[in-house]
Design brief:
alpha/beta, eight-stranded mixed β-sheet, 10 strands, single chain, globular, two-stranded antiparallel ribbon
């Protein structure tokens, strides 16, 4: 935890152990830094105080591993590395970048498409659903029951990406998006990073949007030059580790698929750069029904300004997410300043947020990937 008063004057004299007595969300290295920072902090203090009162709600998940993935990490009794190690998933395949040491080891050139869960078939959705969805999914519990996955399975740690797409589409239906979708859904997905090593999880969109051709344009500066323009066709779900499972009956994305003219139900295309820079080329072939920006950090990066202006001109639904409520609040203020209107989709907790807390966040507010959603 960094001192909230860092950079306001004198150097920090030690670790930030002195928390604000009112909100409890920020900490300081000394009384002098707390005093000097008050002129900035007083505007946010009351808001952060209210957010801290909702901390327990953020960690409310149905999983048997929830305490290990939330409270114990916050209290430094566990870590993301230890959580993965306990399940044989540390530095493995699609799980590679789910811990800090994985981030430092892996390059986005490492694997074009790792398509294995590294789990048994009973723990992952490696094949199609047994039954069609009878109602809209509203929670991880709904999803796990529908896909017949036990609540001790950690797959939600990766499935929050496609489930965020699913839930964002449901929210955007308030803009009559559902009336526009017949058999094809086109999404412009902004700022992918970790997802680039976990693209196979988007195969779950086969199940979430049955009978719909889903096409996603992934645009962001983190995409390597060598992958600019790359197309990924997901014919199957991500596989389990069992050699005799039915998920192995179709190899997916093979020469025979292409040569036979087989059409993929989920296609992804990668573009390096900012959305406002690449939009004209992308839109020639792909007009979006929906724009999605996960973990956007809009208030932290000035490069979002021209992108928000472009989205305003497009007049299509756009759904953003961020790690905590405060980041979402600041982002919403920035967006409203540009558009001149309040959020069409107000800030709300994402039921499909990643169920593992982010380590060493900037505030004492717990942070989760894709934690809060809001949109225009």
């Amino acid at each position: 935890m960094e001192c909230a008063g860092r950079g306001t004057g004198r150097r920090c004299i030690g670790p930030a152990t002195r928390r604000c007595g009112r909100c409890g969300a920020v900490a300081y290295c000394s009384v002098s830094h707390q005093v000097s920072h008050w002129s900035d902090h007083k505007e946010e203090c009351g808001r952060l105080e209210q957010q801290m009162k909702r901390v327990d709600v953020l960690s409310d998940f149905p999983f048997t591993f929830t305490p290990e993935a939330t409270i114990r990490i916050v209290e430094k009794q566990e870590s993301r590395c230890s959580f993965l190690s306990n399940r044989g998933l540390h530095r493995v395949g699609m799980w590679m970048c789910e811990c800090p040491c994985g981030d430092s080891l892996v390059s986005l050139e490492y694997s074009r498409l790792s398509d294995c869960w590294n789990l048994s078939s009973t723990l992952c959705p490696c094949s199609g659903p047994i039954s069609r969805m009878s109602k809209c999914l509203t929670s991880w519990k709904d999803y796990y029951q529908w896909r017949c996955i036990p609540l001790h399975s950690p797959v939600a740690l990766l499935l929050h990406w496609p489930l965020m797409v699913y839930h964002a589409t449901q929210l955007a239906a308030m803009r009559n998006l559902s009336a526009e979708i017949t058999n094809k859904l086109c999404i412009h997905y902004l700022g992918p990073e970790k997802e680039l090593l976990q693209l196979a999880v988007f195969g779950e969109l086969h199940a979430l949007f049955p009978g719909v051709q889903v096409h996603i344009e992934l645009i962001g500066p983190a995409i390597p030059e060598s992958r600019d323009g790359e197309r990924v066709d997901l014919y199957t779900y991500a596989h389990c580790i069992e050699t005799d499972c039915m998920c192995k009956s179709s190899s997916g994305n093979t020469c025979s698929d292409v040569c036979s003219g087989r059409t993929s139900a989920v296609t992804l295309r990668l573009h390096k750069g900012f959305y406002h820079e690449r939009f004209r080329d992308i839109v020639k072939d792909s007009i979006p029904h929906l724009v999605i920006a996960p973990n956007a950090g809009i208030a932290a990066y000035s490069s979002w300004l021209p992108t928000i202006e472009l989205i305003k001109e497009l007049n299509v639904p756009a759904v953003f997410s961020d790690y905590c409520e405060e980041a979402s609040h600041l982002a919403s203020c920035c967006i409203s300043t540009v558009t001149g209107h309040p959020m069409t989709i107000p800030i709300q907790l994402n039921p499909f947020r990643q169920p593992m807390v982010i380590e060493d966040s900037a505030l004492f507010l717990p942070c989760y990937s894709n934690c809060f959603l809001f949109g225009i």
